[in-house]
Amino acid sequence: MAASTFFIPPVNKIGMGCMTESVELIRNYGYRQALIVTDRVLNEIGVVGKVQALLADAGIKSAIYDGTNPNPTTINVEDGLKILRQHNCDCVISLGGGSPHDCAKGIALVATNGGDIRDYEGVDRSAKPQLPLIAINTTAGTASEMTRFCIITDVERHIKMAIVDKHVTPILSINDSVLMAGMPKGLTAATGMDALTHAIEAYVSTAANPITDACALKAVTMISRNLRRAVEEGHDVEARENMAYAQFLAGMAFNNASLGYVHAMAHQLGGFYDLPHGVCNAVLLPHVQRFNTQVAAARLKDIAVAMGVDVANLSDGQGADACIQAISELARDVNIPAGLSSLKVKEEDLPTLATNALKDACGFTNPIQASHEEIVAIFKAAM
């Protein structure tokens, strides 16, 4: 086994109501002027105002950038940077799901390193730590509040750039399930399936290790037991809190074992058609794992066990089939679209999408490397 490195924010607060006590931590860091990076919806429904009030009580001023797109763009990063510089901000606070977190990482990284966010595409391209980032999470899915991954859409090339950099790891992550209670069903389902994808891809990754394996399997179990409930009963606090822990565990797994072709391919769909990331992952997940069965059947059988499937009398191949079936059933139960054609993906675009998917850093740790034809075939199977 190759040597492993484990990345995680130094401090992570999880649990119902932990936002209030986290403000004291932020104050103790000594920051006085924050840029809050969020989206319009969270601003309009008053979540941003509540956080601003808590910060103000602790003597911390804040400016707001609420222009983050669902797939954050190079333009969003530039716009946020302008506000950060106008107000001489000494820290960045991201508030929301993966979109504001990724946008905030882009802003904070360029704030200290200079240049353009495109300069940092790839792995560990920055020279200096970013401006301190505190990530307040409102969805149970992307785990971007605690990872070194930052995904930004380049509006000129219509691709999602994967920026994997130890310097974009937040200094503090906050997962308060109270902030997740109002999440709509569709978003709960998509972000929950994103978390499941993180756990499964990390478990079959070539960079998996005993720590990431433990995190991944526990995440799979918790998602299998709680996602349906979180989608159906949005105010079920136990299901919400369990999903907050599950997505964090899945984040710990993929932040260190990386991902695979589901993400490499989903990034292309998101960049090209501006589609929701979690939905793309959920549609692709069973088809990529069917391809991975050639080399990872025993590992997929373990995942079936974590999902509560009885595989005692099954071979590895049969266990992998049972895993793929369990994934598809969960996706169907939470109303994920059946295929890519219902998302208006066009068959003539698949060769281009496949070419770009093979360049995505997330695919490098897939358990088996694919040819261009094989990636096109997986896309076709997912149509």
| Uncertain segments | none
Q: What is the alpha-carbon Rg in Å?
A: 20 Å
- Structure summary, number of beta strands: 9
The CATH class of the largest domain turns out to be: Mainly Alpha
Quickly count the domains: 2
Layout of helices and strands, plus pairs?
Blueprint: E1 11-14, H1 18-28, E2 33-37, H2 40-44, H3 47-57, E3 61-65, H4 74-86, E4 91-96, H5 98-113, E5 122-123, E6 133-137, E7 149-154, E8 159-164, E9 172-175, H6 185-204, H7 210-232, H8 237-257, H9 261-273, H10 277-306, H11 316-333, H12 350-357, H13 372-381
Parallel strand pairs: 1-9, 2-3, 2-4, 4-6, 5-8, 6-9
Antiparallel strand pairs: 7-8
Helix pairs in contact: 4-5, 6-7, 6-8, 6-10, 7-8, 9-10, 9-12, 10-11, 12-13
Please tell me about this protein's structure.
The chain has 13 helices and nine strands. It starts with 10 loop residues before the first strand and ends with a helix. Strand 7 (149-154) and strand 8 (159-164) form a beta hairpin. The chain has two domains: 11-179, Rossmann fold; 185-382, Up-down Bundle (Dehydroquinate synthase-like, alpha domain), CATH 1.20.1090.10. The radius of gyration is 20 Å and the shape is globular. Helix 12 (350-357) crosses helix 13 (372-381). The strands form two sheets. It has a six-stranded parallel β-sheet with strand order 1-9-6-4-2-3, with helices on both faces. Strands 5-8-7 form a three-stranded mixed β-sheet. 52% of the residues lie in helices and 11% in strands. The protein is an alpha/beta fold and 383 residues long. Belongs to the iron-containing alcohol dehydrogenase family. Its cofactor is Fe cation.
